[in-house]
Design a protein that fits this description.
By secondary structure, the protein is mainly alpha-helical. The protein contains 9 helices and no strands. The chain is elongated. 37% of the residues are buried. Keywords: Repeat, TPR repeat.
Length: 165
């Protein structure tokens, strides 16, 4: 990566950190003019679009990244997260499964898959995925909070069933 491109990416990252996504997008567009197949720029632009709530556009960028590198875990997990956002849980799970075929210890893919499974009502499997993510990354807040939430839900479901007997 050229120094100029590197500088643009750093500035775009700063803009994103400050919540100035539209300025970041301008820089990503400039960077892509210089290097249209730069997978990191493509994914970062997708993430920025996702942060703006422009989910379908974000997915197009993740697909573009995956057309260059079908085994890019970042693109797969981010695409899955976008699909999850628009409640397309089965396709989201498919993305996470693809990422897990490449790296079965990808804690983020495991936790995100757990979230999608939970949305589909499959709480026991969701719980398994959160626990597996935590066995890889003990400090993963998303997995930890989600695991506790699912455990509480399962407990209250059990209590409801016990009351109706």
């Amino acid at each position: 990566m050229s120094k100029e491109l590197d500088k643009m990416m750093s500035q775009a990252y700063e803009y994103c950190e400050d919540g100035n996504f539209s300025e970041a997008l301008k820089l990503y567009d400039l960077a892509l003019k210089q290097d249209p197949k730069n997978i990191n720029v493509i994914i970062d632009k997708g993430v920025t679009l996702q942060n703006l709530g422009r989910i379908k556009q974000a997915i197009k960028y993740y697909d573009k990244a995956l057309s260059i590198d079908p085994k890019n875990i970042n693109a797969l997990v981010n695409k899955g997260a976008s699909l999850h956002t628009i409640e397309n849980y089965f396709d989201a799970i498919s993305c996470y499964d693809s990422a897990l075929k490449i790296d079965k210890k990808c804690a983020m893919a495991l936790a995100y898959k757990g979230l999608s499974l939970g949305e589909l009502g499959n709480l026991p499997d969701a719980l398994k995925h959160f626990k597996k993510a935590l066995s890889i990354d003990h400090d993963y807040d998303l997995a930890n909070i989600s695991k506790e939430m699912v455990q509480e839900l399962l407990k209250s479901i059990k209590q409801q069933k016990a009351k109706t007997r």
